[in-house]
Amino acid sequence: MRWLWIDRFVAFESGRSATAVKALSAAEDHFADHFPGFPVMPAALLLEGLAQTGGILVGEARQFREKVVLAKIPNATFHRDAFAGELLTYVTEVVDLRDEGAVIRGRITAGTDPIAEAEIFFAHLDQSRSKQIFGDHNFVFSGELKMLLGLSALAPSRAGAGLEP
Amino acid sequence: MTQDEIFQKVKGTLVDALNVDDDQVTLASRLQGDLGAESIDFLDIVFRLEREFGIKIPREELFPESIFQGDPNLVSDGKVTAVGLKELEEKMPFADPAGLAAFKSDPKLDKLGDLFTVSLIVRYIQGKVK
Fold first, then answer.
1. N or C terminus: fewer CB in 10 A for chain B?
2. Each residue's pLDDT tens digit, A53-74
3. Residue B130's pLDDT band (cuts 50, 70, 90)
4. In Å, how far is A53's CA from the nearest CA of chain B?
5. Full 3-state SS string of A35-83
6. d(CA B91, CA B66)
7. pTM above threshold 0.90
């Protein structure tokens, strides 16, 4: 299983906002253990999907030159559980984007139902220090996550691109 | 903006950033020692203060954490030297005078974090918004 917790971007406005969807399948392994007889999407994985949506939004804003890492989730609110068979929508907006890092605000819905909201703080790994440790290779955006965005299709019309599913 | 108005806004910022209770935040509170701030929180606090007060806070200006790293003139044997203390005063003119005096009497580098207090932030903002 690959560490992808969103299926597809449905809207993307460079440096401003991104919306992705995630279809929950009963075949996903975590449902077997979380919890036996009562399968609900783990809250941490909901946040991971939101962080992937927002993280790609933040990474793309600097053309994936920065190593964007999740530094902190100052607050998160959960409204109800999410179940297999539901289609979740992850909406993220940039609150702040600077050299040192970025803050996004995100919300998750299933249809009209609110599922969760969170603020996520990303740090750009220190340029000089991370270069010593990891070299030039950007291990955060190594391909899979970038592919998800379908950059080749998006790049020419980055500003205000509304992607129809 | 009065000092108390600034303090109230700073308090709100710290409550949001550090998930502490309102009454835990006093002027004398140390961000790390009393309010449990970690290094990443300092960046979060800086971002929030900028949004809250509409000011720009250059890197290392409010929390000059790394001025001493690896400079033997400024730090020797785990203590900030006389030259280092002078540098510290120049870099942090908004530090709480009593806290600075206490640090000078026992300038262990690992106590440097004690200078990062709520009062330090309030005094810094006062200089920025007047």
1. C
2. 999 999 999 999 999 999 999 9
3. confident
4. 20
5. CCCCCCCCHHHHHHHHHHHHHHHHHHHCCCCCCEEEEEEEEEEECCCCC
6. 11
7. no
Contact B20/B36 with Cβ under 8 angstroms? Answer: yes
A34 is catalytic: yes
Q: How many angstroms separate the CA atoms of B10 and B20, rounded?
A: 13
CA distance B101 to chain A (A): 32
B17 part of contact set with chain A, CB < 8 Å: yes
H or E element at residue A131: helix A127-134
Q: Cα(A156)–Cα(A145) distance, rounded to whole angstroms?
A: 19
Do the Cβ atoms of A100 and B59 come within 8 Å? yes
Of B23, B32, B6, nearest to B117 (Cα)? B32
Q: Which residues from A are below 8 Å from B19, CB to CB?
A: 74-75
